[in-house]
# Entry
Amino acid sequence: MAKSSGTISAAMAELRIYSHPACLEHIPGADHPEQPVRLQCVLDALHGAFPEHFWQQAPRALREDLTRVHAPALVERILAAGQDDACQWLDEDTACMAASPEAVLRAAGAGIGAVDWVLEGSSSRAFCAVRPPGHHAATASATGFCLVNNIAVAAAHALGNKLVRRLAIVDFDAHHGDGTEAIFRLDPRVLYVSSHQSGLYPFTGETPDSDPPHILNRSLPAESDSQTFRRLWHEELLPRIAAFAPDLLLISAGFDAHRADPLATLQLESEDFAWLTERLVEIAERYAQGRVVSMLEGGYDLEALAESTLAHVRALAAQPPR
Ligand SMILES: [Zn+2]
# Structure
């Protein structure tokens, strides 16, 4: 693999970055926090470090890819928005407009393309630089800026491959991935692991005693710092992922737990995302033939989002010592 940037480690896994220009066209209003410029900043940062040969145009998901995890009525409603110029609100902060169907089909399609690609090889990793985000979207509801649950679509697609008997979805967004959890709550082939800020939207994932063994929610108090975050993952969550021995590791990569983020008050640094990514890659190398697919979720401070995503993708690209 060519190494035209001095910032990239000499020992590298196979990495692909999936994205599509349509993901910049979904615009939920001028003062909405989930803006196209978020993705543009991520793309600018990644293009600076990863030259053209790393990049793949996201394929378009099929309607049946979405209905594996979503009610047909919800999928129809979202896709029908393409025939109407008016902006529809699916909840008070989740909008759908003419450009949204292509954006969601490419965002979900990125995950499908990435899963297919990592399952073809070994030590293959992919990052999907897409929006709108997905982890709050549940079977029959689009909510919390999320229209289609991209990581759930990718997981359901992966479970259709005989190489994947079980998989883990790791979600380190500051908000609990309630949609993802709900979709897989009755499916023990999927280990869902989330750390998120307590008392924050969507106000779920706070009663671990009521969760089945394959759902692992841990809320962190507001203002929790790097040390608290790393201790939780090191002592509890990472060992549980290793014990599950997933055939594939999927990541809901939200970066709004960064201390600069305006929508949450956790106190992480970009290096914390790199640290966790390195540990997840080690687990994937041990159990999942190095296969990791990560998809962008939240992150609303543009500088922190770009810096954190770059740290995460660099760690994804690095090959740990064997
Ligand atoms: Zn979030």
